[in-house]
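Protein folding task:
====================
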Amino acid sequence: MTEILQPYSVSEFNKIPDLHEGTTAFHAKDGMKFVNEVFGPLVLKHGLEAQLGITILHRHFDLKDPEKLVEFNNISLPWKNQDKDDSHSGGKILPNAWLLNNGKLMPYEFFFSPFNQEKSVDLTQDKVRAFLGEFVQAAKYSSLDGIVALKMFPGPGFRGGLEFSEGRANIVLKPGQYKLENSQAAEVTWYFERGWREQKDYCHCTKYFKDHFHTVEQCYPGEEAGRPASLK
């Protein structure tokens, strides 16, 4: 049975590879083949396309104890001084990304839910546990254990955006608020929600100097999806 590592560990977070290391390792293991032929079909098989996607594991910057990287209103910042149950300002800090290392899961990125109205993925559900068992085996078989991770699907209405790092903050711009050539970006996250698969929504990353951007760009049927650039 797949376990959730507790407690969350800042030191483990800081071991996550940076963007260049993560994407290089992913493509060296032919990661896209496994996303398309193994991981995506597994998500669909267990009916989790509206809950989970696959991402290349990488970090934006280091954190300090007891910080967590928490997203709220399209901005992710290091938050600290959480209560033991992750209560904060009348709401909850909940996981939205899980890394896989040596067959075990650990949450590594989070979001803030005011009044605890928005929920995270319940990893104790039978269908989720069944998926996790197969996902762990597939990641080990593909040698992508520690290279790919699970990302919570943002939910209805999500149409992507451009995420850029400014200092120790990650800021997401909505479609229409940015321009980016496809050749500047590398795909890092894939969702499989029914009705979206044909639209080819991708999350991309690129790197400028010490900062990097994430993007999700929507490509409708008949349009050509941009290919990831090599990162040096």
Notes: Residues 10-217 form one domain.
